[in-house]
Amino acid sequence: MKHFIDQCRQLIGSTHVLTDSSDMTSYLTDYRQRYIGTAAAILKPANTEQVAEIVKLCAQHRIAITPQGGNTGLVLGSVPDQTGRSIVLSLLRLNQIRHIDDINNTITVEAGCILQQVQNAANSVDRLFPLSLASEGSCTIGGNLSSNAGGTAVLHYGNCRALCLGLEVVTPQGDIWNGLRALRKDNSGYDLRDVYIGAEGTLGVITAAVLQLFPKPASQLTAFVAINSVEAALALLNLARSNSKDTVLSAFEIMSSYSLALVKQHFPELKQPALKEHPYYVLIEFSSQDSEAANCAALENLMTIALDTGTAQDAVLATSLAQSNTLWQLRESISSAQAAEGKNIKHDISLPISQIGTFIQQTDALLQQKFNGCRMVTFGHLGDGNLHYNVSAPKNSSIDDFLAQQNAINRVVYDSVAQFSGSISAEHGLGAQKRDEILRYKSPVEMQLMRSIKQALDPLNIMNPGKVVQPLP
């Protein structure tokens, strides 16, 4: 290992090879501060060529690689295991905006670019890069692509896979595949881009990408709506779709009353809308390329119909960008508020949209039967079927005792998800946390196909081993 570390120092400079434990801790600790891995070193290359040379050295010495961006993942996909026979490959220095083509509506960026940096670069040429996440100030494009991130704009723009046209990837052999094609049509063989997106670094290292840009909306308006049930939210979603003919329904988020109460408790400085308490709330965003007046008329018409029919109980319309940002901040602060309340058990699931109400009703009841008093923090992207269905411990109970039941709680939730033909991972990925869990819910044929791809591309099993899928024996 010493010889390998010395070679790395010669390659990228001693400053960018971290071996002191105090320097390594932040790279080895998962985002939720619950797991700490070990590694021989943290390597911070400056460009794709250095990444390729590091991978070649790792293949030669049979050293595992954990690619890492902003380390904001929630399923232990971006931290190493505890064997100590791996390195963390930090891509944060690959942070250049390589090219913006405002005619083709594309931007070519390196994997270490922070998402907010890409959003700002798009804005500088009067364009929109629509991927939006609560962690956009720290997560990286490479990590977004590796987990096929979703966020709040999937309803209209799609997830990361839909936003990416081309990739640059370093293979497990240290070769560089230049697939940075800024094409919307390219039917010239297997779509290698889609193999790497969502693979969580298990098949290669994404080092750059061509991303799609969109015209900036001339108007974006937000409404915060009180409703009595998830079924009412689904009815409101159908109304919103039918009333957005001249506008775009760009976001439709749901949050339970308890979710919002946690935000009020832990972030009292955030101004809450002047609405009476109801079981659920919906955040709706309409966007338009036309005038703000037309957009406002569409949203007001929707609210009039929803209130007159009893679909909605009350509503607040943002009349300024500042008010809209405040409403969005309430939604984006739910995870932080739940963390401030105490440790919890997260579930990032997706379901057929029409089944979400029945799923919540049935699964809530099952959890209360088996884990009486558990508190449900339910929120998410209702418009695309992605629910963050999180479970907090009963009030005044032992957190350790509660977390000891995590596997049993997961089983109730995931079995229910399977019953409704859903997925146990909507946008967070599998990582190490759900790698074995997925075996219960994917067919042997599907798992064998995944293992075959892993074996074919990474026969030495050095790319993020232990994540997503176990290799063939």
UniProtKB/TrEMBL annotation:
Residues of the FAD-binding PCMH-type domain: 35-216
GO MF: catalytic activity; FAD binding
Keyword Flavoprotein: yes
Cofactor(s) in the UniProt record: FAD
InterPro entries to which the protein is assigned, alphabetical: FAD-bd_oxidored_4_C (IPR004113), FAD-bd_PCMH (IPR016166), FAD-bd_PCMH-like_sf (IPR036318), FAD-bd_PCMH_sub1 (IPR016167), FAD-bd_PCMH_sub2 (IPR016169), FAD-linked_Oxase-like_C (IPR016164), FAD-oxidored/transferase_4 (IPR051264), Oxid_FAD_bind_N (IPR006094)
Source organism superkingdom: Bacteria
Membrane-crossing segments per the record: none
Biological processes, Gene Ontology terms: respiratory electron transport chain
Record keywords: FAD, Flavoprotein
PANTHER family: BLL6224 PROTEIN (PTHR43716:SF2), D-2-HYDROXYGLUTARATE DEHYDROGENASE, MITOCHONDRIAL (PTHR43716)
Protein family per UniProt: Belongs to the FAD-binding oxidoreductase/transferase type 4 family.
Name assigned to this protein: FAD/FMN-containing dehydrogenase
Source organism (scientific name): Solimicrobium silvestre
Phylogenetic lineage: Bacteria, Pseudomonadati, Pseudomonadota, Betaproteobacteria, Burkholderiales
